[in-house]
Amino acid sequence: MPSALKYELVARCSTTKARAAILTLPHGPVQLPLFMPVATQASLKGLTPQQLEETGCRLCLNNTYHLGLKPGQEVLEKLGGAHKLQGWNHNILTDSGGFQMVSLLKLANVTEEGVRFLSPHDGTPMLLTPEHSISLQNTIGSDIIMQLDDVIVTTSPDMERMREAMERSVRWLDRCIAAHKNPTKQNLFCIIQGGLDLELRARCCKEMVARGTPGIAIGGLSGGEAKADYCRVVSTCTSLLPEMKPRYVMGIGYPEDLVVSVALGADMFDCVWPTRTARFGNAITKYGVLNLRHARYANDFGPIEEGCGCVCCREGEGGLGVTKAFIHHIAAKETVGAHLLTMHNVHYQLALMRSVRDSIIEDRFPAFLKQFFADRHDGDKTKYPDWAVEALRTVGVDLMEP
Amino acid sequence: MEKPGIFEIIRPEDPSVLGPRLGQLTVQGRSKLETPNFLAISSRGVVPHMTPDVIAASSQIGGVHMALEDFIEKSPSGTPPIMKIPGNPLHTFTAIPNSIITLLAPRRTPAVTAPNGNSDTAISVFTSTGFQALSNKSYISSIQTLRPDISIALADLTYGPLPGTKRTVKMSDRTQEWLSDLLSENGHGGAVFAPILPIDSLSQSEYLDYLADDQAGEISGLAFYDSNLLPDIPATTSLSRLPHLSLDEPASPHHILRQISLGMDIFTIPFIGHATDAGIALTFRFPRPLPDDAVASNDTGSSVVPLGIDMWIPTHATSLLPLSNSCTCYTCTSHHRAYIQHLLSAKEMLGWVLLQIHNHHILSEFFSSIRASIKMGTFEADAEEFGRIYESELPEKSGKGPRVRGYHFKSEGPGEAKKNKAPWGNLGSDDQSAGRGLVPDENSTELQEKGFAEKVEE
Ligand SMILES: [Zn+2]
Ligand SMILES: [Zn+2]
């Protein structure tokens, strides 16, 4: 099928499955691997689009479910799409809306036609079909759009349902491809399903890769499965995916998950956690998460993170030199506290992925991984998570070796 | 010894003439503040909704009003954190741009009424951990540590019903004594503004005479809790050369103009923040709408032009117009009404950020036009025209504001209504961002029309 992107491989890690690439989308190039902040309702937690741009972000996520509700397809149509709505001239990715519908509307269930739910307002049965989701995303005008898939939690014991969901997702992909009106302007990504069953995942990869979408997502994860199971699924899928296409693992954002997933061959990630957690006074740093509402920070006049290059932490020209003590002073009392932490947290995530990328290009990613885990766990190897140690061993990196 | 003035009056040539004044406030190391002008009001050291980088990049704010009560809640260590910072603690701690002038007052403006009265040595202030006494001694030492560019001396104020004669005598006695203590101990050399009490001038005549005769050379400005006192200030050269700061909470631009006509120079304007929180974009220009704006603001059918636009109104949902035509603020040059409307209706914090940027810009432009008008000698006629063209009051608020932050509001007693309505309760989530607005408000027909989903034929 046609595509509206260009994937250029820049470097491959000589040890792990990590890759560095340039992905050129309709609104400009982005560097892979990449973290995408989530601007759910066309805004990122109080940051102006200009401030978001200053963090280096060139691809953010909007949620189709939310934009479908507010402002709605008709308004989006009149405005000319989500880029126009939010004054964002860089790239946008949208999800299908199905996942949120199933998880937020209690009476939703999935049939072959689509996601059925009762209108919470008047109880009328309603339906979101693959055609519908694509039509909404066509109107939104996002640079990357996602197929509607049949998602069930990976931990579901119902294997029959799992197989049905995977096969249905393939059939819905065909309907999405057929419904997609702008294949030369918007890139449709398929979503690999199949739960934790590697056999199902492999079949799904084969079926979906054959459809030739411009990019491929690995879906249904980050739903509470064991991390080791997660890693097995990601690694199984990436081994079966074409090398010259971007691979997106949905809903992943903890720093450890990101670096391990890159080592397993994934390129793109999104998660609400870094921005949501800022609201609760949490700062992400390379030594772990700090809750700046804690009294111990009331008199801490150091930056949120020493050496951080974000607008908040930086001193001098263009930097604010904000201290932990000041964030403590306003956290949960003034929204500016959340805005400042959001700027820092988004910057942290993007900077992390930039340094991952640099290390891949310079072919020192294994050393990067060792330093990353040492920083996070104060050099104490007994604290390293087993799943990460195991997963990295499968791609030739032994965190335990001196 | 007389201190060098920080204020220069450019017009009128004789400053004792009652009328609009053009001036310039100069504080070393900060940008000059041309007057008439305003100081942004801060809360806990931040201008609500605006991060310091946004203030630097997207506002013309020249000064900020800060309240000591925002920094001194009881802490385990005893010393408030901000007091431990060397140099210029207010700027360093709050990260506001160095070009911006800081004015320190004991209390916020507007301040929450304290249940306890003041004593001979202390007033009652409201911190995030509750009411506490602030002695003049401690206020003076805070000023010496915080080194604000300007501080307002402690005043013995009552809130609520007008005080009786006995009380007003006490008010002016205490205020005089507190000011005198501050001036005699004012080692750091920062400018001090003397409060003018919100009681009739006769009741504080002794205090006013004290200012005129004994302290005019020591103080750098007058802070009015009631602007009606302006004409009653002794017309001595030494007093009239001082800048006049209004803490009178003007309710609308008309009040600002009236105060300017009486000789007010610098304002604090709570209605900017109130408008922002209410989802109202201020749109007034001085003295009349810009040519482009006339049509846009006149769509209410009334011949009187509104002072602002209620951005909650759904008709803005598809409007690609800026909040105010030919407005050059970040919000208006980068975004349109449809986005602001969407953000408000989706309860996204950015909605209030963008309104706050715009509303502060509108006030900066308002004052800039006022200065031009005074310079041209047309202020009286212009103010009269403004009064004729514009509505007398700001639009009513129709939508919900941002979440009310509890410590801003003192509970008036048991049974008081909750300030924030509970978000969607049935989703079992304590995370607002997950539970908020996610269940459609619309019925199925509306959902179908919006393109959200389709009805199923049974
Ligand atoms: Zn930072
Ligand atoms: Zn504007």
From TrEMBL, chain A:
Domain tRNA-guanine(15) transglycosylase-like per the UniProt entry, residue ranges: 16-376
Cross-referenced Gene3D superfamilies: Queuine tRNA-ribosyltransferase-like (3.20.20.105)
Organismal lineage: Eukaryota, Fungi, Dikarya, Ascomycota, Pezizomycotina
Species whose genome carries this gene: Amorphotheca resinae ATCC 22711
Keywords: Cytoplasm, Glycosyltransferase, Metal-binding, Transferase, tRNA processing, Zinc
Protein name: Queuine tRNA-ribosyltransferase catalytic subunit 1
A Pfam family recorded for this sequence: TGT
Region (RNA binding): 251-257, 275-279
Residues binding Zn(2+), per UniProt: C308, C310, C313, H344
GO cellular component, one term: cytosol
Automatic annotation (TrEMBL), chain B:
SUPFAM superfamilies the UniProt entry points to: tRNA-guanine transglycosylase
Keyword tRNA processing: yes
Basic and acidic residues bias spans: 409-419, 447-458
Region (Disordered): 394-458
One annotated GO molecular function: metal ion binding
Cited Pfam families: TGT
Key words, A-Z: Cytoplasm, Metal-binding, tRNA processing, Zinc
Residue intervals of the tRNA-guanine(15) transglycosylase-like domain: 20-391
Function: Non-catalytic subunit of the queuine tRNA-ribosyltransferase (TGT) that catalyzes the base-exchange of a guanine (G) residue with queuine (Q) at position 34 (anticodon wobble position) in tRNAs with GU(N) anticodons (tRNA-Asp, -Asn, -His and -Tyr), resulting in the hypermodified nucleoside queuosine (7-(((4,5-cis-dihydroxy-2-cyclopenten-1-yl)amino)methyl)-7-deazaguanosine).
Protein name: Queuine tRNA-ribosyltransferase accessory subunit 2
Source organism of this protein record: Amorphotheca resinae ATCC 22711
